[in-house]
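Input.
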Amino acid sequence: MTIETAHTLDRRDGPYGEVVLRGRGEHFEIIANGCFLMDTSDGRSERRLIDSALDALPPGRDRPSVLIGGLGVGFSLAHAAADPRWGAITVVEREQAIIDWHLEGPLSAISGPALADPRTVILRTDLIAHIRDATGAYDALCLDIDNGPDWTVTEGNHGLYAPSGLMACMDRLKPGGILAVWSARPSPDFEQSLRNAGFSGVRTEEIPVARGVPDVVHLAARPA
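Output.
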């Protein structure tokens, strides 16, 4: 089997370090500070993040709002915007480079229709700061800014999964709202942290991958 060679399409130095967009054959990869984040080869688990959150919401909730934490390669946003059941779709992304790659770069092929959807708003800010400081509440938080609670991209991201971060997530959810967190591997410790923070219905859904442990979506609800 021939392995395609990766080539750099753009490299930026930002406030959180280096961010790189690479092409590999027909696919694209995002690298942050030398750490592989994601690529466009398989978006099943990113789409599952959105679907699982919607399915877990209490029945009868009309046009629920969703906050997507991390734009990434755009799979989660595109999937949410393709579903007319969602209402307002807010995406928080702290890296201007990633936003640019979607607005005027090669990733626009994935996210273009979603970005043009009137329900979609992109906020360039830090997710943790937005969750802590915002005044509104969402029906669902779909968060994918790290490789998982136990494998963060930058040291400051640990605060999202700490007790204070989980309480802030609780505050940003409407009663009965759903917190969904993507991870590259299961984390029993994070499940317990969710329970300790007062979330209900804590569970983990697995998504098989070609090699290694499955991707997962951790799900939890703010009590109604």
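The first strand starts at residue 6 and ends at 14.
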